[in-house]
């Protein structure tokens, strides 16, 4: 059994208990790796290949009935070699109340496929992730900052962003 | 206003046809300032919890109307006092600066509460560390949020300040004059304000985060420990 570590997380090929058959079947073609932690805050998690990020969500939506994108964000792991960011997408099936969290990894400066064509709520969510982390989303209709001023310099939720004093008396 | 002599007053009385006509003698300065200080119409910029305290100040228990300030104007064109109540972010600072620029002179600014005065507890990237990075401030109110009493106290202090106002003595020069101000220039107007200058700048210079730079350009050193 191949193991991939991500911070405190351990991934395996086996889906944890509680994940429905529909979800397992939908995600099988993508070769996802499941978080060994059975239920991470109620969200079973798995790691997806970045190139097939949108396809995996499409399969979840069309085959497993996941009709809502609950959240979309990222985590910065500056110490991780090569792939600095982990992008998270949290989807939910409102009928069965089943939830799932998909993760993918992306190096600095490279883009992740957008989910806007699947859920319109991904529009602002991805703009927020872009605004805070500087991760571009390929295919997004209007990828601009959403919270910070358009001329803002820097990506506030990256680990190397200073805690205070960012705007003080800069040129 | 030229000097009025006793003879002229007598002449005016005779011209009016009645020696019993009552005349109220004062100066334009006193009348203008009396009028201004008793009709300060605030533009409340309620950005967070200080806005709620401002509402309490305006409501019947504390009753700002006693000072002629009950007419909160939500158009900068009709307001005399910009009351910045709450946490100002850099994104909102552009809006605040635009509102300030749209207000007609004479205008005054009160920075209400810790956030507006210094950023308060928000020492982070989106929050302006004091609205005086962008616009000149007449009074700062301490507190988080300040009690309505503090606001009333400062409003009365503002009335005293308006009473001492000398801005009517400013001369307005023709735009054709060789030394008239051009758009984009920064001028220091004598008289009313001795603090930061009034900036007559273009949109681009004014609304992009230029507060700290302008302070630096004026030779104001960054405060230590902020």
Summarize the SSE layout with pairings.
The complex is a heterodimer of chains A (171) and B (226).
Chain A: E1 4-6, E2 9-12, H1 21-27, E3 33-35, E4 45-47, H2 53-63, E5 68-76, E6 85-93, E7 98-106, E8 112-113, H3 122-133, E9 137-138
Parallel strand pairs in A: 4-7, 8-9
Antiparallel strand pairs in A: 1-2, 2-3, 3-4, 5-6, 6-7
Helix pairs in contact in A: 1-2
Chain B: H1 6-15, H2 28-37, E1 42-46, H3 49-58, E2 81-85, H4 90-102, E3 108-112, H5 113-118, E4 139-141, H6 148-163, E5 186-187, E6 198-199, H7 203-207, H8 211-217
Parallel strand pairs in B: 1-2, 2-3, 3-4
Antiparallel strand pairs in B: 5-6
Low-confidence sequence ranges of chain A: none
> From the structure provided, what is the oligomeric state, counting identical versus distinct chains?
heterodimer
Percentage of helical residues of chain B?
A: 25-40%
Helices of chain A, by number, come to: 3
What's the domain count of chain A?
A: 1
CATH superfamily of chain A: NADH:ubiquinone oxidoreductase Nqo5 subunit
CATH topology of chain A: Beta Polymerase, domain 2
Largest sheet: spatial strand order of chain A: 1-2-3-4-7-6-5
Descriptive notes:
- The complex is a heterodimer of chains A (171) and B (226).
- Chain A has 171 residues and is an alpha+beta fold.
- In chain A, 18% of the residues lie in helices and 26% in strands.
- Chain A is globular and about 50 Å long.
- Chain B is elongated and about 70 Å long.
- Chain B is built from eight helices and six strands, in the order ααβαβαβαβαββαα.
- In chain B, α2 (28-37) runs antiparallel to α6 (148-163) and α3 crosses α6 (148-163).
- Chain B is of the alpha/beta class and 226 residues long.
- The chains are: A alpha+beta (171), B alpha/beta (226).
- The interface between A and B is medium-sized, with 18 and 16 residues.
Task: Name its key features.
heterodimer, A: alpha+beta, Beta Polymerase, domain 2, seven-stranded mixed β-sheet, two-stranded parallel sheet, B: alpha/beta, four-stranded parallel β-sheet, two-stranded antiparallel sheet, 6 strands
């Amino acid at each position: 059994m191949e193991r991939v570590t991500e911070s405190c997380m351990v991934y395996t090929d086996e889906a944890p208990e509680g994940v429905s058959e529909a979800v397992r079947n939908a995600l099988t073609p993508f070769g996802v790796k499941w978080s060994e932690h059975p239920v991470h805050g109620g969200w079973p998690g798995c790691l997806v290949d970045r190139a097939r990020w949108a396809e995996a969500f499409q399969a979840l939506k069309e085959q497993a009935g996941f009709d809502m994108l609950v959240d979309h964000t990222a985590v910065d792991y500056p110490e991780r070699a090569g792939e600095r960011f982990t992008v998270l997408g949290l989807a939910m099936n409102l009928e069965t109340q089943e939830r799932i969290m998909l993760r993918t990894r992306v190096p600095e400066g490279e883009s992740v496929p957008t989910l806007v064509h699947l859920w319109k709520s991904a529009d602002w969510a991805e703009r927020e992730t872009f605004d805070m982390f500087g991760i571009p989303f390929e295919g997004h209709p209007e990828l601009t900052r959403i919270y910070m001023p358009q001329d803002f310099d820097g990506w506030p939720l990256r680990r190397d962003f200073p805690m205070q004093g960012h705007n003080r008396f800069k040129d | 206003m030229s000097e009025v002599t006793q003879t002229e007053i007598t002449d005016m009385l005779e011209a009016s046809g009645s020696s019993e006509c009552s005349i109220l003698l004062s100066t334009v300065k006193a009348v203008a300032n009396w009028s201004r200080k008793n009709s300060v119409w605030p533009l409340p910029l309620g950005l967070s919890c200080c806005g709620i305290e401002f509402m309490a100040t305006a409501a019947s228990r504390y009753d700002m109307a006693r000072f002629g300030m009950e007419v909160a104007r939500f158009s900068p064109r009709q307001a005399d006092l910009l009351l910045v109540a709450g946490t100002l972010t850099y994104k909102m600072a552009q809006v605040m600066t635009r509102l300030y620029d749209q207000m007609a002179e004479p205008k005054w600014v009160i920075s209400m509460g810790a956030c507006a005065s210094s950023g308060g507890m928000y020492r982070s990237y989106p929050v302006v560390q004091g609205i005086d990075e962008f616009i000149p401030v007449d009074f700062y109110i301490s507190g988080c949020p300040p009690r309505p009493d503090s606001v009333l106290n400062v409003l009365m202090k503002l009335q005293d300040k308006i009473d001492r106002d000398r801005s009517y003595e400013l001369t307005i020069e023709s735009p054709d004059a060789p030394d008239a101000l051009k758009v984009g220039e920064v001028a220091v107007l004598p008289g009313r304000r001795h603090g930061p200058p009034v900036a007559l700048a273009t949109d681009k210079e004014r609304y992009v985060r230029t507060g700290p730079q302008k302070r630096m350009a004026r030779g104001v050193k960054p405060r230590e420990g902020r």
